[in-house]
């Protein structure tokens, strides 16, 4: 059976308490409520991204379509203006005048058709720009919410990190000077048993596994030499006997 000063074994409980606190802080950091909210916001932003891209693409396409429609109308207007200018000049023959008049009529019809197309594109563009504005506003709102939650997360993490550093300093002080063999055993068990390598024997119960030990085992543990490092028969953790933990062995 390994041995270590009884006082070192009792101090080991302080180390264990600090290690447990460090685990709790790590759990708080990785499971902070803001992380779930950020995941939800990221999901909403991702869902909206497709609509945002589609809406922006549609608006861009309609703007190009409108530019073309405006160009088509302007081309007809310019040709009609030139023809009208030639007629008004009186320098064309009667035959050419008839041809120009016929073409002006045709151009007027063509211009009316193209202006209807232009108006339709303008109306569709206006509707899509309004829809895009709403999607962008929703996206901006989500991004603003995300930035706010990220700031909240960072502030919480900063507080947790300060506590982690404080616990680490306290642990260094608590473990300083402890029996090297006891510390090595403790670290090995802590790694194997979910972070708890030592526990107090409280009455008949091991507070590591929370199991009541058989009276015979408890009697043997309590009768062992004060510097004997005893282990729980159920979980294998170091069992620390303290004056404050009452015995119920009859």
Automatic annotation (TrEMBL):
Residues 45-79, 125-152 form a coiled coil. Residues 205-239 form the C4-type zinc ribbon domain. Keywords: Coiled coil. It holds the Pfam family Zn_ribbon_9. Residues 15-194 form the CT398-like coiled coil hairpin domain. This is C4-type zinc ribbon domain-containing protein.
């Amino acid at each position: 059976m390994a041995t270590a000063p009884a006082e070192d074994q009792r101090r080991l409980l302080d180390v264990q308490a600090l290690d447990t606190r460090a685990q709790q802080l790590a759990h708080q950091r990785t499971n902070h409520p803001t992380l779930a909210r950020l995941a939800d916001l990221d999901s909403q932003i991702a869902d909206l991204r497709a609509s945002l891209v589609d809406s922006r693409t549609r608006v861009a396409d309609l703007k190009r379509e409108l530019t073309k429609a405006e160009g088509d109308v302007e081309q007809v207007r310019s040709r009609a203006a030139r023809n009208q200018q030639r007629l008004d000049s009186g320098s064309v023959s009667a035959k050419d005048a008839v041809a120009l008049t016929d073409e002006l009529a045709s151009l007027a019809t063509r211009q009316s058709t193209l202006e209807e197309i232009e108006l339709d594109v303008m109306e569709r563009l206006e509707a899509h720009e309004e829809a895009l504005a709403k999607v962008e506003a929703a996206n901006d709102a989500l991004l603003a919410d995300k930035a706010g939650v990220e700031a909240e997360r960072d502030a919480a993490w900063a507080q947790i990190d300060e506590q982690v550093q404080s616990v680490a300093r306290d642990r260094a002080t608590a473990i300083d000077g402890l029996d090297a063999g006891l510390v090595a055993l403790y670290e090995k068990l802590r790694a194997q048993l979910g972070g708890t390598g030592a526990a107090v024997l409280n009455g008949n119960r091991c507070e590591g596994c929370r199991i009541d030990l058989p009276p015979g085992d408890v009697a043997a543990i309590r009768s062992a030499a004060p510097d004997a490092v005893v282990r729980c028969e159920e979980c294998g953790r170091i069992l620390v006997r303290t004056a404050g933990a009452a015995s119920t062995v009859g």
